[in-house]
Automatic annotation (TrEMBL):
Protein name per UniProt: Carboxymuconolactone decarboxylase family protein
Domain Carboxymuconolactone decarboxylase-like: 54-132
Database matches in Pfam families: CMD (PF02627)
InterPro entries tied to this protein: AhpD-like, CMD-like
SUPFAM superfamilies (UniProt xref): AhpD-like
Amino acid sequence: MGRLEPMYPQELDEGRRGLYEAITKGPRAAGRHFPLTGEHGELRGPFNAFLLSPELGGALQELGAAVRYRSSLTPRAREIAILLVAAHWDCAYERFAHERVGRSVGITEAELAELRGGVVPELDDAYERACAHLVRAMTGGDVDEEVWETWVPVVGEATVFELTTLVGYYSTLALQLRVFRVSPHAD
């Protein structure tokens, strides 16, 4: 489990138990493409660390659920964006989890290979292409005027807000996964 010991469901206090259930019984539990829990019910990926601080972990869990399940981003655009963040941070766990989700929403193996390298693939869909170029700029630290003027008219300012939130959230997870040494194979 990297640097953190697993927290098993039967050992959780009330605050941690509520967060555990929000993660394991919420929208992430339906149709998942990667395991949320290990063999003994311990949370995998970034979620075990959320239990260290249930108030903050709960807020992060809710933000992540909103980004994944309640934004206006299309599933492909969302997963392309997440995979570009994973590439920027070289985050193995995000790549492992979201390549699986990406395949389920139609991202091809060729597109996944380019995204792994942080490259925006040749995307036929103008909305996806705009989202990908905006995220690529955001992971570089800013959206300059040229990028803004080229891509924002395609997607609109509300999508830019959703994308900046997604980039911030998945960058936070990538940092936590790195610091706690969570890998897709170690937990």
